[in-house]
TrEMBL record:
Catalytic activity annotation: IMP + L-aspartate + GTP = N(6)-(1,2-dicarboxyethyl)-AMP + GDP + phosphate + 2 H(+)
Family: Belongs to the adenylosuccinate synthetase family.
Protein name: Adenylosuccinate synthetase
Active site residues per record: 13 (proton acceptor), 41 (proton donor), 141
Sites where the protein binds Mg(2+): 13, 40
Keyword Magnesium in annotation: yes
Length: 433
């Protein structure tokens, strides 16, 4: 069997969608194992852009089966809308090509309402969530008060579940947040309809994966947000509500850890972040604006402008350890073209001491100043480059310095948004057999 897990090494938006789309040409199955529609993977195919929020990126490859694992929280309305949009690209998604875990938890209307109300109440202290209901849905999962996909297929079971849940939710909405309560019958009618439409797609993803692995199929697991948004290992509390590291591919899809053969990290050639939280290398100047404009750094889910800054190698090295990365894919190297000087952080100066990773305490994180190494830039267009040796010498030096610091090889370098604008140094699947 060949199994590859693709993980973001920064704060998300590293370009995982393009890399997954590229690797899917070798994959029989592509599996999404965590997160919800708060993440978006942007793909450019034939000059057309499509953004996928829930459906695994492999859906654009006709021979690939896509699985949404139990670790994902599913907004059924969003999923159905996404399947309709795919039709515009000539992709008709059938139950033979998309399977949704019966154990995946469902984002309900009260989750979205609570998410937005909570953020609004925090004012200046808000975390910067997308308001999609992801956090409250994961809270209910852990509190054992959630609704799962199989509930949508049985109206009587869904009614009983909602009767147990809505008294508390409506009390919070009405008495604490000053919102109108939700109506059981309205939710029941809407969500049983979703269940009827999605029923052919709902099954046991874990057993499907077992069959695939026994048949020596190639399986690609795609994460959503980046490593440093992990609820345990990220810059807490400015994190997402799930585990984004490679180890969660097992829990969120229903396989054992011995099934994983290769973990590929995705590193953007600079750093971005959406929402609040520490960001030591952030650039609030013309260079940051240049990177944002040239890189199209606006949230694929919310449209919010991303915060942009220099590459932070300390952040990536932390991700190398947490995920057990075997190799790295570098994305958006072309965005740095035209900048006369480039910088990358190799540590932090915090309270007079140089350290190699961000401390866990938020107040200390905010005091950390990056320790930089400087590099010359390049002017040459990278879009047509297909071999590492043909990159400008300044670009090669930049990449080689990063690789030496991180201690693991680069397997893929992206020099543009298109599928073909890629330098493949080593096929991750060839190392995953």
């Amino acid at each position: 069997m060949s199994t590859v897990v693709v993980i973001g090494t920064q704060w998300g938006d590293e370009g995982k969608g393009k890399v997954v789309d590229l690797l899917t040409a070798r994959a029989d199955y592509v599996v999404r194992f965590q997160g919800g529609n708060n993440a978006g993977h942007t793909l450019v195919v034939g000059g057309r852009k499509i953004i996928l929020h829930l459906t695994p990126s492999g859906i654009l490859h006709p021979g690939t089966v896509c699985l949404i694992g139990n670790g994902v929280v599913v907004d059924p309305k969003v999923l159905l809308e996404e399947l309709e949009r795919l039709k515009d690209f000539g992709v008709v998604v059938t139950p033979e090509r998309l399977v949704v875990s019966a154990y995946a938890h469902v984002i309900m209307p009260y989750h979205r309402l609570l998410d937005s109300a909570r953020e609004n109440r925090k004012g200046q202290g808000r975390i910067g969530t997308t308001g999609r209901g992801i956090g409250p849905c994961y809270e209910d999962k852990v509190a054992r008060t959630g609704v799962r996909m199989h509930h949508l297929l049985n109206e009587a079971a869904l009614r009983r579940r909602l009767e147990e849940i809505l008294e508390e939710k409506n009390f919070l909405l009405s008495h604490y947040y000053g919102q109108a309560p939700v109506v059981l019958e309205d939710i029941l009618r809407e969500y049983t309809d979703y269940g009827r439409r999605l029923a052919p797609f709902v099954s046991d993803v874990s057993t499907r994966l077992e069959e695939a692995l026994k048949s020596h199929k190639a399986v690609l697991f795609e994460g959503a947000q980046g490593t440093h948004l992990d609820v345990d290992h990220g810059t807490y509390p400015f994190v997402t509500s799930s585990n984004t590291v490679a180890g969660n591919a097992c829990c969120g899809a229903g396989i054992g850890p011995t099934a994983i053969r290769h973990v590929l990290g995705i590193m953007k050639a600079y750093t971005t972040r959406v929402g609040g939280g520490p960001f030591p290398t952030e650039l609030s100047d013309q260079i940051g604006e240049h990177i944002r404009t040239c890189g199209g750094e606006f949230g694929s889910t919310t449209g919010r402008p991303r915060r942009c800054g220099w590459l932070d190698l300390s952040v990536v090295k932390h991700a190398v350890r947490l995920n057990g990365l075997a190799s790295l894919a570098v994305t958006k190297l072309d965005v740095l073209t035209g900048l006369p000087r480039l910088r990358m952080a190799v540590g932090y100066r915090c309270q007079g001491t140089v350290i190699d990773r961000l401390p866990p305490e938020m107040d200390r994180m905010e005091q950390c100043e990056p320790v930089y190494e400087d590099f010359g830039g390049w002017e040459e267009d990278l879009g047509q480059v297909r071999r590492f040796e043909d990159l400008p010498i300044a670009a090669r030096r930049y990449l080689e310095a990063a690789q030496d610091y991180l201690g693991i090889p680069f397997s893929i370098i992206s020099v543009g948004p298109g599928r073909e604008q890629t330098i493949v140094l080593q096929d991750p699947f060839s190392r995953a057999s």
